[in-house]
Specification:
This is Winged helix-turn-helix domain-containing protein. This protein is of the alpha+beta class. The protein is 28% helix and 37% strand. It has one domain: Gcn5-related N-acetyltransferase (GNAT) (Aminopeptidase), CATH 3.40.630.30. Helix 1 links the parallel strand 3 and strand 4.
């Protein structure tokens, strides 16, 4: 279902991020195949979970996703409360 940009909370195409079977975060992803990049415009933590643990696990998962998609680089954006910790973990 299309959501106009001004009504989007977490981004355009948001993936749930599960850790040990629990929703711990949400991440907006874009595969830019022409440039070989996995762009991560936004990453958000879910309340009640360790942001550090989530960011560390998400960093590994993003590398796995980029490899699976045959993309060389991961480009982190600046939106979301998890992004500073994710940037430090990458």
């Amino acid at each position: 279902i299309y959501t106009p940009e001004h009504k989007r909370v977490h981004g355009y195409y948001v993936f749930p991020f599960l850790l040990d079977g629990e929703l711990v975060g949400r991440v907006d992803l874009r595969a830019e195949r022409g440039t070989g990049r996995l762009r991560v415009p936004a990453a958000f933590a879910e309340p009640g979970h360790s942001d550090t643990r989530t960011a560390q696990a998400l960093s590994v998962a993003l590398r796995e996703m980029a490899d699976w998609l045959e993309l060389d680089d991961i480009v982190l954006g600046d939106r979301g409360d998890l992004m500073p910790i994710l940037r430090a973990a990458s």
